[in-house]
Amino acid sequence: MVRYWGNEGGNRTFDILIDDELLVTENVVGKWNKDEFVNVEYPIPVNMVRGKTSITVKFKCRPGSIAGGVFCVRLLKPAASSAVHSAQTSDTTVYGGKNKIHIQNAGTKTQATIYNLSGNLISSLILADKNVQIPASKGVYIVSLQEKESETFKVIVR
User: Fold this and answer.
1) CATH code, domain with 132
2) How many domains does the chain contain in total?
3) Are residues 150 and 117 part of one domain?
4) What residue numbers bound the domain in which 46 lies?
5) Of 58, 81, 89, 104, which is the most exposed, with the fewest CB atoms less than 10 Å away?
6) Which of 34, 52, 73 is the last residue of a domain?
7) pLDDT digits 0-9 by tens, 43-94
8) Do residue 88 and residue 65 come from a single domain?
9) Exposure b/e, 129-155, CB count within 10 A at least 16 = b
10) Over the chain, what HEC string results?
Protein backbone atom coordinates (compact mmCIF):
# COMPACT_ATOMS: atom_id res chain seq x y z
CA MET A 1 0.00 0.00 0.00
CA VAL A 2 1.33 3.40 -0.92
CA ARG A 3 -0.04 6.67 0.49
CA TYR A 4 -0.03 9.66 -1.85
CA TRP A 5 -1.28 13.20 -1.54
CA GLY A 6 -4.51 13.35 -3.54
CA ASN A 7 -3.88 16.59 -5.39
CA GLU A 8 -0.44 16.51 -7.02
CA GLY A 9 0.73 18.82 -9.80
CA GLY A 10 3.64 18.84 -12.19
CA ASN A 11 4.91 15.78 -13.99
CA ARG A 12 4.89 12.77 -11.67
CA THR A 13 5.23 9.70 -13.83
CA PHE A 14 7.29 6.99 -12.18
CA ASP A 15 7.89 3.26 -12.01
CA ILE A 16 7.41 1.18 -8.89
CA LEU A 17 9.99 -1.60 -8.84
CA ILE A 18 10.28 -4.71 -6.70
CA ASP A 19 13.91 -5.87 -6.55
CA ASP A 20 14.57 -3.82 -9.72
CA GLU A 21 11.71 -5.52 -11.61
CA LEU A 22 8.82 -3.33 -12.85
CA LEU A 23 5.62 -3.75 -10.85
CA VAL A 24 3.69 -0.82 -12.33
CA THR A 25 4.09 2.61 -13.94
CA GLU A 26 2.11 5.28 -12.12
CA ASN A 27 1.15 8.93 -12.75
CA VAL A 28 -0.56 10.59 -9.79
CA VAL A 29 -1.18 14.02 -11.36
CA GLY A 30 -4.89 14.81 -11.52
CA LYS A 31 -5.80 11.25 -10.57
CA TRP A 32 -7.92 12.05 -7.50
CA ASN A 33 -8.15 15.88 -7.32
CA LYS A 34 -8.82 16.01 -3.60
CA ASP A 35 -6.89 17.62 -0.76
CA GLU A 36 -6.40 14.52 1.37
CA PHE A 37 -4.22 11.45 1.48
CA VAL A 38 -5.08 8.54 -0.79
CA ASN A 39 -4.02 4.93 -0.21
CA VAL A 40 -3.40 2.76 -3.26
CA GLU A 41 -2.81 -0.98 -3.09
CA TYR A 42 -0.57 -2.58 -5.71
CA PRO A 43 -0.82 -6.36 -5.46
CA ILE A 44 2.57 -7.97 -5.95
CA PRO A 45 2.52 -11.08 -8.15
CA VAL A 46 3.61 -14.28 -6.45
CA ASN A 47 6.61 -14.72 -8.78
CA MET A 48 8.10 -11.43 -7.52
CA VAL A 49 8.23 -12.58 -3.88
CA ARG A 50 8.37 -16.38 -4.06
CA GLY A 51 11.16 -17.78 -1.86
CA LYS A 52 12.24 -14.33 -0.60
CA THR A 53 12.53 -13.21 3.01
CA SER A 54 12.85 -9.53 2.04
CA ILE A 55 12.23 -7.30 -0.96
CA THR A 56 13.34 -3.80 -2.00
CA VAL A 57 10.68 -1.39 -3.27
CA LYS A 58 11.90 1.53 -5.40
CA PHE A 59 10.13 4.53 -6.86
CA LYS A 60 12.01 5.54 -10.02
CA CYS A 61 10.97 8.67 -11.89
CA ARG A 62 10.62 8.64 -15.66
CA PRO A 63 12.77 11.09 -17.67
CA GLY A 64 11.63 14.67 -17.08
CA SER A 65 9.46 13.63 -14.13
CA ILE A 66 9.68 13.32 -10.40
CA ALA A 67 8.33 10.48 -8.29
CA GLY A 68 5.86 10.90 -5.51
CA GLY A 69 5.04 12.38 -3.27
CA VAL A 70 5.04 9.18 -1.32
CA PHE A 71 4.04 9.57 2.33
CA CYS A 72 3.84 5.95 3.45
CA VAL A 73 4.68 2.50 2.09
CA ARG A 74 3.36 -0.68 3.70
CA LEU A 75 3.72 -4.27 2.64
CA LEU A 76 0.39 -5.96 3.27
CA LYS A 77 -0.52 -9.60 3.28
CA PRO A 78 -3.71 -10.24 1.37
CA ALA A 79 -6.69 -10.45 3.70
CA ALA A 80 -8.33 -13.80 3.42
CA SER A 81 -8.11 -13.88 -0.32
CA SER A 82 -11.15 -12.77 -2.25
CA ALA A 83 -10.24 -15.24 -4.97
CA VAL A 84 -10.57 -18.97 -4.67
CA HIS A 85 -9.20 -21.40 -7.17
CA SER A 86 -7.93 -24.89 -6.89
CA ALA A 87 -4.42 -25.16 -8.29
CA GLN A 88 -1.94 -22.41 -9.07
CA THR A 89 -0.79 -23.38 -12.56
CA SER A 90 0.59 -19.96 -13.52
CA ASP A 91 1.67 -16.64 -12.03
CA THR A 92 -1.69 -15.09 -12.95
CA THR A 93 -3.47 -13.38 -10.05
CA VAL A 94 -7.19 -12.59 -10.04
CA TYR A 95 -8.85 -10.79 -7.15
CA GLY A 96 -11.72 -8.46 -6.33
CA GLY A 97 -11.27 -4.85 -5.29
CA LYS A 98 -13.61 -1.94 -4.76
CA ASN A 99 -16.00 -2.20 -7.71
CA LYS A 100 -13.36 -3.93 -9.86
CA ILE A 101 -12.01 -7.32 -10.81
CA HIS A 102 -8.23 -7.23 -11.10
CA ILE A 103 -6.37 -9.63 -13.40
CA GLN A 104 -2.58 -9.54 -13.18
CA ASN A 105 0.16 -11.36 -15.06
CA ALA A 106 -2.21 -12.86 -17.60
CA GLY A 107 -0.90 -13.40 -21.09
CA THR A 108 -2.02 -10.95 -23.70
CA LYS A 109 -4.59 -12.62 -25.93
CA THR A 110 -5.98 -14.51 -22.91
CA GLN A 111 -9.75 -15.02 -23.14
CA ALA A 112 -11.41 -13.79 -19.92
CA THR A 113 -15.00 -14.81 -19.29
CA ILE A 114 -16.86 -13.53 -16.22
CA TYR A 115 -20.09 -15.00 -14.84
CA ASN A 116 -22.22 -14.09 -11.84
CA LEU A 117 -23.24 -16.85 -9.41
CA SER A 118 -26.48 -17.35 -11.29
CA GLY A 119 -24.42 -18.41 -14.30
CA ASN A 120 -25.24 -15.30 -16.32
CA LEU A 121 -22.49 -14.07 -18.62
CA ILE A 122 -21.32 -10.67 -17.36
CA SER A 123 -18.37 -10.04 -19.68
CA SER A 124 -16.22 -11.80 -22.21
CA LEU A 125 -13.07 -10.19 -23.54
CA ILE A 126 -9.62 -10.83 -24.94
CA LEU A 127 -7.01 -9.26 -22.65
CA ALA A 128 -4.83 -6.75 -24.49
CA ASP A 129 -2.58 -6.14 -21.49
CA LYS A 130 -1.13 -8.43 -18.82
CA ASN A 131 -2.67 -6.30 -16.03
CA VAL A 132 -6.36 -5.42 -16.38
CA GLN A 133 -9.04 -3.89 -14.17
CA ILE A 134 -12.63 -4.71 -15.10
CA PRO A 135 -15.45 -2.63 -13.55
CA ALA A 136 -17.91 -4.78 -11.57
CA SER A 137 -20.67 -4.24 -9.03
CA LYS A 138 -20.43 -5.67 -5.54
CA GLY A 139 -20.93 -9.43 -5.63
CA VAL A 140 -19.37 -12.81 -6.27
CA TYR A 141 -18.12 -13.74 -9.73
CA ILE A 142 -16.58 -16.70 -11.50
CA VAL A 143 -13.68 -15.64 -13.73
CA SER A 144 -12.46 -18.11 -16.32
CA LEU A 145 -9.16 -17.46 -18.10
CA GLN A 146 -8.23 -19.42 -21.21
CA GLU A 147 -4.94 -19.15 -23.02
CA LYS A 148 -2.83 -22.29 -23.28
CA GLU A 149 -4.49 -23.75 -20.19
CA SER A 150 -7.71 -22.88 -18.44
CA GLU A 151 -7.92 -21.44 -14.92
CA THR A 152 -11.04 -20.56 -12.99
CA PHE A 153 -11.28 -18.15 -10.05
CA LYS A 154 -14.09 -17.22 -7.66
CA VAL A 155 -13.82 -13.49 -6.90
CA ILE A 156 -15.56 -11.29 -4.36
CA VAL A 157 -15.97 -7.64 -5.38
CA ARG A 158 -16.61 -5.24 -2.50
Assistant:
1) 2.60.40.10
2) 2
3) yes
4) 2-73
5) 89
6) 73
7) 888 888 888 889 999 999 999 999 878 999 988 776 544 555 444 556 788 9
8) no
9) eebbebebeeeebbbebebeeebebbb
10) CEEEECCECCCCEEEEEECCEEEEEEECECCCCCCCEEEECCCCCHHHCCCCCCCCEEEEECCCCCCCCEEEECCCCCCCCCEECCCCCCCCEEEEECCEEEEECCCCCCEEEEEECCCCEEEEEECCCCCEEEECCCEEEEEEEECCCEEEEEEEEC
Looking at residue 35, its amino acid is D
Q: How far apart are CA 100 and CA 135, in angstroms?
A: 4
| pTM, to two decimals | 0.53
